[in-house]
Write a structure and sequence with these properties.
Radius of gyration: 18 Å
Strand content: 35-45%
Structural class: alpha+beta
Distance between the termini: 43 Å
Order of helices and strands: EHEEEEHEEEEHHEEEEE
Strand order of the largest sheet: 1-2-5-9-8-7-6
CATH class of the largest domain: Alpha Beta
Shape: globular
């Protein structure tokens, strides 16, 4: 294991990300901190949706200290999702797809999710990356999975590899064109594909509005580009859901 980060291993916790946010706010660590647990009871994702896990899930969060004026672009979420994709493909050999803004899918469905947050204090700043990955049981890893999950891997191996990739990129050291090409190559949606666009109904907050659109990739701020009725709409992460038809 690398020696340049700290690991906190918890038997159970409400949320590794919530725990880490409190931990770094109180302790202001100067090195990255990984927090993992065997059981997460109140995990959350985009728009505070419940993050459900099981006993085969790989659950962890990473706190990455940053200088106060460190530049973060709107593409950083897509960049980190690409690093997670690279790490899992290298560890498992599985065919995985990137779904905007930062989910990973296989042919059965969603296998990994990620949520990015920040801790901002007067004299301290940290980037919090929360990740959950569904894994097959090692006893059935050579069989066809009955649910969406990756092949089995050891979580410490993922720590090591993912951390290495994050460190090498320094979060913002990536080429925008290369990132775009990587997403096109490994994307869950093809450019020009018809998709369902699901968003809250402005006249009825308890209802959802569904429209058909055409996926056009993402812009330099990480917004999804969706063509609806001939007009291009830019969508920020968490505002809507995009699904295959």
């Amino acid at each position: 294991m690398p020696k340049d980060y700290q690991i906190i291993q918890l038997e159970n916790v409400d949320s590794t990300s919530r725990y880490l946010k409190d931990y770094v706010a109180q302790n202001q660590p100067q090195q990255p901190v990984f927090c993992t647990t065997q059981k997460q009871t109140a995990g959350y994702g985009q728009q505070k949706r419940h993050w459900l896990t099981n006993d085969k899930s790989a659950i962890f969060s990473l706190a990455y200290p940053l200088p106060q004026k460190y530049p973060l672009t709107g593409l950083v979420s897509l960049h980190i999702a690409a690093l997670l994709h690279q790490s899992l493909v290298e560890l498992t050999g599985d065919t995985l797809y990137l779904k905007w803004p930062n989910d990973l899918f296989n042919s059965q469905g969603k296998v990994a999710g990620m949520l990015i947050e920040q801790v901002m204090q007067k004299d301290y700043r940290a980037f919090i990356i929360g990740i959950g990955v569904n894994r097959d049981s090692p006893e059935i890893m050579n069989e066809v999975a009955s649910s969406s999950s990756t092949s089995w891997f050891e979580i410490n191996d993922l720590f090591s590899l993912f951390h290495q990739k994050v460190q090498q990129s320094k979060l913002v050291h990536y080429d925008e064109q290369e990132l775009n090409e990587y997403w096109v190559k490994h994307g869950f949606f093809n450019l020009g594909e018809s998709v369902q666009v699901i968003q809250p109904n402005q006249t009825n907050t308890d209802a959802l509005k569904t429209e058909h659109g055409i996926y056009r990739g993402f812009d330099s701020h990480g917004h999804a580009k969706i063509e609806i009725n001939g007009a291009l709409t830019l969508v920020a992460s968490g505002q809507i859901s995009i699904r295959k038809i």
